[in-house]
């Protein structure tokens, strides 16, 4: 009986924790390679992540297939006829995104901070 109660309690905690995705709704900014400004405008609805970023020419690039579960997020953007898969991690007031490297090189990390 006690084992069943502990198992049920542990399962409930896991489910409750998974249901609370970080609310990153709003504008976030950072730099790519410490040189190029980047900004994202995120919208969270449950585990669905939508929003946009601005390309180098000032064009709006929409986030596609966005998901946020707990502190983990992932989404795709179409950039220069390529679809780029981006993953990330939320910690406090920081989002660290990992995106594919240029021309198949090492992945790049970009640190975003909530815009004021």
TrEMBL record:
Region forming the signal peptide: 1-21
Keywords: Hydrolase, Signal
Listed GO MF terms: hydrolase activity
PROSITE patterns, per the entry: PROKAR_LIPOPROTEIN
Name under which the protein is recorded: Glycoside hydrolase
Provenance organism: Mucilaginibacter pankratovii
UniProt lineage: Bacteria, Pseudomonadati, Bacteroidota, Sphingobacteriia, Sphingobacteriales
